[in-house]
Amino acid sequence: MQYIITAPERIDSEIILPASKSISNRALIIHALSSGTETLGNLSECDDTEVMKKALCDMPDVIDIKAAGTAMRFLTAYLSVTPGEHVITGTERMRHRPISVLVDALRHLGARITYEGEEGFPPLRITGGRLDGGRLDIPGNVSSQYISALLMIGPSLSKGLELHLTGNIVSRPYIDLTLHVMHEFGCDIEWTDVDTIAVSPQPYSNRSYHVENDWSASSYWYEMLAVSESLHSRVVMPGLNDGSRQGDSAVRYLYSLLGVKTSFTVSHGVSTVEISRHPRQLQQMNYDFVNQPDLAQTLVVTCCAIGMPFHFTGLASLKIKETDRIEALKTELLKFGFVLHDVNDSELYWDGERVELMPDASVDTYEDHRMAMAFAPLALSLGSVRINNPSVVSKSYPHYWDDLRKAGFTIEEA
User: Fold this and answer.
1) 3-state DSSP assignment of residue 267
2) Whole-angstrom distance, CA of residue 413 vs CA of residue 372
3) First to last CA, the chain
4) Alpha carbon 305 to its chain's center
5) What does DSSP say about strands 124-128 and 134-139: parallel, antiparallel, or unpaired?
6) Radius of gyration (Cα) for the chain, nearest Å?
7) 3-state secondary structure (DSSP) of residue 211
8) What CA–CA distance (Å, rounded) separates 103 from 98?
9) CA neighbor of 40 nearest in space, from 210, 289, 214
10) Are the C-beta atoms of residues 186 and 152 closer than 8 Å to each other?
């Protein structure tokens, strides 16, 4: 399937964003570990959260998490401390995403995990049970989801967990988000040093919990305003909190540099963001995405669309996401005449170099939700854009295309 997306002259809309996938998936694991009976409110309806909910509810012998990387990491740790034997698997791409760092760490804690196929990759056979815990060293530059997965099972370990992160620590805001949600469920967890986190062996509290809306999803609306020619464009997004623990809330700072301003109002206990378009002064954008890797695609496409040279670093984790996002960005933006360069598999820059556009170019999405959502706003600068396999947005933002229609975009099937 292909969508042809045609942009309106300006955007003036209120958008109800999806709930945070990151918080929802953490809350689900913690709720399960607490044997919780209270309600989790405003859970995400995205694919990643749905497969997690189904797995935790049904607990089949073979758990297929499809393309949900978060679910693979979090459930691997959860199954290790939960009685029973299960095989956990996923899509072809998931079976080629490395997981040995997490498996090695869990084995060190006493977990019984074997590889069903290629060493170091899913599928995994896990026989769960009581683990002792104790001190554990793990590289700090691996996916923060490995670290979060280990932290969340910490209260279930007989000796608790002292997690020492070696080397550079990446995506620290996502680790801090995990600590915050664990705190909300009564966990005694804290940074005891710049590189060490201690978790006490005590049960989680059984409590109700309401999930905040998703700052990552807001980034595409920030992008639309940055790319929009109209200084009268604005978007209102309820359910986003000032002082949010979501790392991607940094989007409001990043886009303030590109002329998109953020204001907050609170009414009846609900915090609402309004973003508006203003002139921009910046001539080139430089930023280290080590703490917000999921915003990189959005900013890369934005900068190209507005003719803003950039040099972005801290992108190493993009190589092992749903696709190799660095190569995907280079390939797809070249179709629209933008010549990007990468360095050391962790940096991406554009110095303004352009070539001729490819006639009737369409964006391949590589089974990656963020490719579809980051490229759709190009319609505001090109008039229209074609997106292949648009249904991939269901992974994190199922009603993205409906929201674009609400905001005045025309979307046709080709």
Assistant:
1) strand
2) 15
3) 7
4) 23
5) unpaired
6) 21
7) coil
8) 10
9) 210
10) no
291 with 173: CB under 8 angstroms? yes
Q: State which amino acid sits at residue 50.
A: E
Tokens of 275: 């973003």
Helix (H, G, I), strand (E, B) or coil at 399: coil
Spell out where 213-353 has E strands.
234-238, 260-267, 270-277, 285-288, 310-313, 341-343, 347-350
User: Tokens representing 36?
Assistant: 């919780």
103-117 burial, b at 16+ Cβ within 10 Å, e below that, comes to: bebbeebbbebeeee
Active-site hit among 47, 48, 214, 294: 294
Q: 19 phi and psi, to 5 degrees?
A: -65, 155
For the stretch 226-263, what's the b/e string if a residue is b when 16 or more beta carbons lie within 10 angstroms of its beta carbon? bbbeeeebbbbbbbbbeebbbbbbbbbebbbebbbebe
Tokens 């997965």 -> residue: 149
Q: Which residue has the tokens 């280079």?
A: 330
Whether 365 contacts 392, CB under 8 Å: yes
pLDDT digits (tens, 9 = 90+) for 221-245: 999 999 998 999 999 999 999 989 9
| Strands of 48-175, DSSP E | 62-64, 84-89, 112-115, 124-128, 134-139, 161-166
pLDDT tens sequence across 116-174: 999 999 999 999 999 999 999 999 988 899 999 999 999 999 999 999 999 988 888 89
Token couple for 3: 């969508």
The Cα angle at residue 221 between residues 265 and 45, in degrees rounded to 5: 90
In this prediction, residue 233 carries a pLDDT of: 95
Q: Catalytic site residue 364?
A: no
Assess whether the previous peptide bond of 123 is cis (omega < 30° from 0): yes
Q: Which amino acid is at 245?
A: R
Asked if residues 401 and 15 have their Cβ atoms less than 8 Å apart, the reply is: no
The torsion angles phi and psi of 269, rounded to 5 degrees, stand at 80, 0
Q: Is the pLDDT of residue 36 over 90?
A: no
256-258-259-261 Cα dihedral, nearest 10 degrees: -30
Strand partners, 213: 19
Distance from C-alpha of 92 to C-alpha of 117, rounded to nearest angstrom: 12
CB-count burial class (<10 Å; 0-12, 13-18, 19+) for 279: exposed
Selection from 331, 326, 324, 322 nearest residue 312 by Cα? 326
